[in-house]
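Me: Here is a favour to ask of a fellow structure person. Could you put it straight underneath, so I can go through it closely?

Assistant:
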Amino acid sequence: MARRVAAPFALPWPGASVPRSPLLGAPQFAVLLMTLVLVPIAIVLLAHPALPDALDRRAALRYRDTFGYALGDLPTRDGFTYWGVTAVTPDGRAERAGLRAGDVFVDRSASLLWAVTESAAGRRACVAVWNVDTRPREAIRSVCFSGGR
């Protein structure tokens, strides 16, 4: 009996076993689909330029009771809104450092989070601030938190 050899890309003869290609099961398909959807979203969120500021703001809120400040949006007479200090506790660490209600942090290299973290660790830390009620806007001053309590 002569052996039959299938030509490439030809249909198998009757009775021949057809090799099955591996298929994805339902769980594997769901994981693949979620990966294709969620990975691009995660990349966009992580690459967003406002993400570091948002994380700093959230983290700085942890120190508000220790240092005695409140943070939030500060509207100006010009119609702009900045994020900064909305209130300061009398005789709190923030007030003793010179922080006032209406202060906005202007130095990108030293944030409020950095300053309060350094101060809580016992090191002196300074940040540049501008008060929204001050004219002209070039009136930037330095606020220094002392180390320790």
